[in-house]
Amino acid sequence: MAHRPDTLEHAPLGRDSAYPEQYDAGLLYPIPRAANRAPLGIDDDKLPFVGEDEWHAFEVSWLNGRGKPIVAVARFRLPANSPNLIESKSWKLYLNSLNQTRFASREDVQRTLLRDLAAAAGGSVSVELLGVDDSELVPQRLPGECLDDLDIDVSDYTPSAAHLAVGEVIVEETLYSHLLKSNCPVTGQPDWGSVLIRYKGPKIDREGLLRYLIGYRQHQDFHEHCVEHIFTDLMQLAKPEELLVLARYVRRGGLDISPWRATPGLTPPSPLRLARQ
């Protein structure tokens, strides 16, 4: 794996890129998580959450030993404690570098993906290769209560924890919204998503929570950092005993990204994919 600078200056995102015709693990572009966590007061050596970044890749293909194309859908999971995330366009280019490459077996492809992605992330990853008709890819619905029918006034489209408020009653509930939107920090392109919040603690005012989530509408950041931002703000305000924040972002460029962050002991409903993905 080639050494990369700790910035987006040389990342392929937002640049014209020729699609590779030969397998090239050096296309993967790792980005250290620490720089974006520091402004939120998150210490990489003492993370306040557990979690993963779950990716689905729909443009995965290679050649078998006789030159016949094989197609699959790949599911990748990067742990939140890995030093790096991987820039999405570089991931897309890397996956497409497999298109004209011969592999002896499906297991050989999986081993190659595991090796290359672990090197880029700086830690262990998991890789599954699914058939395009696999039942795990059937769309489902988020559990819990939807906030989107609340009739609210909104005038602030940048994240502000000032919209959040809590009461004294302790509750355990799961809420979600399909109104999440943020923007790519490099290209400014919109990233559409749904967000689920499961918590046990002081009751969070629902109208304020929806205003807060809508506040990401003009915010520029990576999917993973948006989820960590939401988690951090809710923990600081409500101090819940348990908290899970999960975002399911709409597929773009053949990839969808679904980060989640939680207090230890909580895990998301899985497998879970939505119709927009």
UniProtKB/TrEMBL annotation:
It is found in: Cytoplasm. Its EC number is 1.7.1.13. Pfam families: QueF, QueF_N. The active site is at C184, D191. It catalyses: 7-aminomethyl-7-carbaguanine + 2 NADP(+) = 7-cyano-7-carbaguanine + 2 NADPH + 3 H(+). Its main location: cytoplasm. Belongs to the GTP cyclohydrolase I family. QueF type 2 subfamily. HAMAP family: QueF_type2 (MF_00817). This is NADPH-dependent 7-cyano-7-deazaguanine reductase.
